[in-house]
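Check the record.
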Amino acid sequence: MPKINILEPKVFNKIAAGEVVERPASIVKELVENSIDAGANRIEVEIFDGGISKILVSDNGCGIEKEDMELAFLPHATSKINEFSDLFDLSTLGFRGEALASIASVTKVEVTSKPKDKSGHTIRLEGGKVIATGEKGSPDGTYFKVEDLFFNTPARRKFLKQPKKEEAEITTMIARLILANPNISFKYIADHKTIFSSSGKGVVDAICAIYGTKIMENLVPINYKSGDYSITGYIGKTSFFKSNKSYQTTIINHRWVAESIASIAIAQCYESYMMKRCFPFCVVYISVPNSELDVNVHPNKLEVRFADNKKIFSFIYNAVSNTLLDDLTKKTREEVEKPNLDNEKFSTEYFVKENYNESLNSTNDNIAQSTVDKPNLNLDFILDNPIKDNNNLVMSSSQDSVLGEIVLEKLTSIEVPKYTFDTQNSVKIEPKPIQTQLVSDSVQDKHSYLATQIIGKLFNTFIIVEIDDNVYFIDQHAAHERLLFDKYVSNVKNNEMNCQPLLIPYTITVNHKEEQFILDNIDLLRSLGFEIDQFGDLSFKISAIPAILPNLDVNAFFENFLSNLDSIINLKNVDLVIDHLAETACKHAVKGGDDLNKEEIIKLVSDFSDGKVTLQCPHGRPFVVKFTRKDLDKWFKRVV
């Protein structure tokens, strides 16, 4: 067994720093939380180069005593707890005593602090070693300067992101701290530019400082209490959702926490109102007894553990559900009270009775008309849903089963059996027989051949083609939709996207995390045909859209685009517009009921008769169904 060594402080401090100091945002979080614990009501943060080169944090808190300056940077030195039992009743954000020692071990630190009615003192450290100490005049509070992150651990420094991305992480962190501490005034500056400035005048002020004032129109206040549990703040209305989770803030005992049982409970309250890929907005403050909460389960204190999960889940779920129900009830009551109607004429009974009678009379008229106009013979082919195999349509052709069902009413007493798919004996339908039967490869010969094989159309929707012992029913809309969609996708893949200028440029407003995401992918958006530029703080101007998407809903597109915010998968140009291309193809394709002439039918069929086209529309619906001569013989009992 190797010899056991006792690590030196400079070694184990750097190891501990790996847990506490992941990136510049980690340092900002620890320093600001120390300022909050020091009782500050005014905090200023300034960073340079994403916090990699310099971080400045100042506050007007209680300050650090002269004799405690060096002690504060020793491992496990803390003013927050005195004994083990204190861990079960924590009211401060920091308590382990690891932060300052870890930060100092991988940076160059200068701290100046002045308690009230006492003189100021300063200390400088490099790599955890004290370089200088002395008296220094300063206002009440503490001033931190942290420089050259990971200057002595280059292996870790290379894992940092680009400065702008590190800045985005810090911006997100500061936003959380502002929302978590609405009664503290914050100022946050990045590379000499003010990003956030809050006055500390309460929750509404904090929300407006982060999201802007207009967002309050879409929020509902929540205020609910049960025993020792309480929840306050604001939640989104049932009609207000965002495309990612960055608009969800859960504060538990003044501490921002990542997704927990609390956020799950909130999300479930909105399930019946939300569409796919939508997320509710919330800024909620949950208070529980400190003794029922364990915050010491994560190195960065980003997660918490509750003593009774069921109790907290039920409390939050009931609070949010009741708040939403009250808001909906209030809205309904307001809508009912608006009309000034005659109570007798517009009574509920009148509406129910009159509408019911009118509907009944209308139904009887339709039935009577139907009986007169339609013959007694009713011959229906009822087709089950097709089975898909990759991108091709699969249809049954076994001897024991046949596609469809024939219902003969008032025509014969013969009982027609119901047939189902046989998935074990199925074959793929492919249009290759059309190709192999062509006289030559020339377009004219191909069209001439198809002209003899196309035997008609049905309901101005289905084209009927007979080849050998097979008959094909082709949905003209779905077929044309697939052809257009493939053409559009090809244009995108080959970067053949043109711009269509907008008469009035469209402006979108985002938060800081979304802003950075757009900036990271702006070249990709431009390659798609968007003319997009930054337009002031947290805004982008779209001057042109892809010409291939003339009816694009710009707002919906960017909501979908920003839903990829937390994805680690690299975005691709086709992925971004695939749904919109499918929608565009659907709008521009010929419709069911359009009366196509013979040449148009021949052109449509010939375009996909080379066997290279997927036999489904972009939404997954088949556009070709094949019946064999044998199927027809079995239907009419010509064979058994």
Q: What stands out?
A: The chain has five domains: 9-201, 212-335, 339-374, 382-482+591-635, 486-588. Residues 72 and 100 are 7 Å apart (CA to CA). The two ends are 82 Å apart (CA to CA). DSSP finds 18 helices and 29 strands in the chain.
